[in-house]
Structure formats: structure tokens, C-alpha cells
Design a protein that fits this description.
single chain; 111 residues; alpha+beta; OB fold (Dihydrolipoamide Acetyltransferase, E2P); 4-stranded antiparallel β-sheet; 4 strands; globular
Amino acid sequence: MPILATAKQLFEPIPEEIYEFFVEEAKRSYSTNKNPMFKLRLTTEYKGVDRGVYDHIVFIDKCAFKITNYLRALGYAVKEGDPLDEELIESSRGKKVRAKVIIEDDPKYGP
């Protein structure tokens, strides 16, 4: 039976730990600096309630580690020096991925 969550429960961050997520969306977009990126929308169950986690994967050199880790979490054997394939990220919609949640404070949006 589904559990109805309060607004507070839905907007408080989930604790930092490893979760299994379902990739709801991997949408092509552009950053404010006009770099190609993907907007990710992931869901996981926490205390009986589906919770959303959002992230951006920007295709710039300093974010290569993030792209590599995401592709590895999807099960792809990615090595240093491999070309970064945007199609693999776009095709991740509907797949499951294990990832660790790390909460960073943002001066504009908070934790």
C-alpha cells in the first residue's frame, strides 16, 4: 500500500548513502555557459515513499569523472581516455543505477 508523504518529507534531502535509483529522465540541455549537458531525474524509495534526486552532467573536462562514474554505474566498462558517448547517457532512461547521494550546500538553494 502506498504511503502518502507530507510536503516536508518530500523536500527534505534523503540521507547520504548508496541507493538504487530508477532513471526517470536523462534530457539533453545546455548549461548557462552553453556547454552541452544532461539533466537527470532519478527516483528511489526511502521510508516507503518515492523520492526524487536531480543532477546535471555537463560535458566539460572537469566533469569527466562524473560522466565516467555515471556510465560505470550503468554497467559500461569505461576506461580513461575513452571518448565520452552522449548517446549512452541519453539511453539510460528507464534503467536502474546504484549511486551514492552526497549533499552539498549551495548558497542559492541550500542543502
